[in-house]
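Reading a protein record of the kind used here takes little practice once its layout is understood. Each number in the token line that follows is a code from a learned vocabulary of backbone shapes. One such record is shown here in full, so that the layout can be seen directly:
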Amino acid sequence: MIAEEGKSKEVILTGIAASPGIAIGSAYLYSKVVPKVSPRSLADDEVDAELQRLQDALARSEKELQKIHSFAEQKLGSQSARIFEAQIMILQDSVLMGAIRNRIRNEKKNAEYLVFDEVDKYRRIMSDSADEYIQERAHDVDDVMNRIIRNILDQKLFSRLEGESLIVSESLTPADTVIFSRNQVLGYATDFGGFTSHAALLSRSLKIPAVLGLRTATKHIKTGDCIALDGYGGALIIHPSEETIESLRRKEQRLKEFDKKLEGIANLPAETLDHKRYELSANLELQDEVEYAIQQGSQGIGLYRTEGQLMGRQSFPSEDEQAAEYTAIAEQMFPHPVMLRTFDIGGDKMSPVPLKEENPFLGWRGIRVSLDRPEMFLDQLRAILRASTKKNVRILLPMVSKIGEVRKAKEYLKQAQHDLTLRRCPFDKNIKLGVMIEVPSAAVLAEELAREADFLSIGTNDLIQYLLAVDRGNNMVASLYQEFNPAVIRTVKSIIDAGHKHGKWVGMCGEMAGNPIATILLVGLGLDEFSVAPPILPEIKKIIRSIKFKDARKVADKVLTLPTEFEIKEYLAAIVKEKLPDMPVEALDTSQDKLYVPSSKPL
């Protein structure tokens, strides 16, 4: 039921648009009961019974996850259901469970406390990471731990909802997401979580609108409140007015109509009206996303973050483990290219290398770690080479800041090639090696780096932060993080020109590549490849196919004369609207253009 306008003050919370769609209805505040544990000493004659309690809980937990896995497989397919296979593997981990059993015997403490204490070690390390991807994987570990403890304590789990609801929670586990989908769920809204979380991935697969990372939603919403969820713009409106509700419904209709116009575009080339072609690729976190990227029209993987393999590990994965994953991805994407970024790890990210730094973003990370850990680096290079037999794999080096790092990396690549030759293991002898330009010194040295590397890929996320001295995660200065700052545009132009001067291909894998307002500008600046989040691929392709390269060059020339971020953004938005009048304004800039007008400011 929709609340009457004026009864309650309308408030907007902004978060991450994790799954598209509009949902309006009653909220259901899902407060997960986190099992409380405390240590309890056991008598000698209680140990065997406690071991049995643990064993029974593990068996029940596995049975629950197998049931969820089966349901997810039927509804979503085997790729998405693999999330639950990974959780089942944690339950079956003989080392972890063996350690818990030994502690019960030796310390004579209760099972639920020791499960918490042992598993929580890994969860804490992952949660403390500044890397969003690793933080998200910590939630998965947390879910398994809580499931075991609940079953030890014989606590009941959530069963069913009555009527249609929008689920509001601090966070949602993969199991929560799938189980709720069996009810009349309109949408998901959470305080925590990001675009790469399993909850986000599953919401997209289930076609349920979701906005994550709202931070304070559970503090301002109670069960029964009327709320509206904007999964396109990343907003949650509490007590929406009739005006807001109507504008959201109009917005949804316009976006649905525009989406219909994008149908069939996936199999068309990213080519301008005057026949200039571009590579349009996807940024991926997980192997599970490859199939979805292909469906969206991806012509390759422009960035695959290999550090996802380090989740929950105390050591680096073996060469064989890495080779198996890289080979599967290369074969799945063939004949399109796959750019495997070497481990981008360090003090701010999850890593088997223990390290605590006061300022990790300026510390030991990316290529610096790889060059300081040659055995780890060689393992990864050999694994990548082993996956390159179809000749569609490329190597991408992160956080390069000087020429010497590239030259040293090339020496290790030659060593890895020599090792595989001795083992008579096939590989692409002409594999391409590229450099990410995401440090200002690399931007300044782009011409020299272009001589050393086979291609350049601009990582705008870090480049903009370093260039403008802005931590975009800091609310005090986040507004200063500006993709369209003239300094950023001119730096991007100089990098592209430097690469082309030496006949090298230049791509972009940062978020700027996926901003529709920037597409015409980047075409005009001469960018060769766009690598973006899979959901945005059709829109970027539509824009490219609706313009002429010669016109885009004129747009870029004009932008390079504009002195402020506001003027650049305003000009580009007007150009896009002129060239694509049927593209809804919401598809251009969800962070700025809202069709609803709140009666109060966002919190």
Notes: Residues 264-587 form a domain with the TIM Barrel fold (CATH 3.20.20.60). The CA atoms of residues 280 and 409 lie 27 Å apart. Confidence is low (pLDDT under 50) at residues 1-6, 589-603. The chain has three domains: 11-27+163-253, 44-152, 264-587.
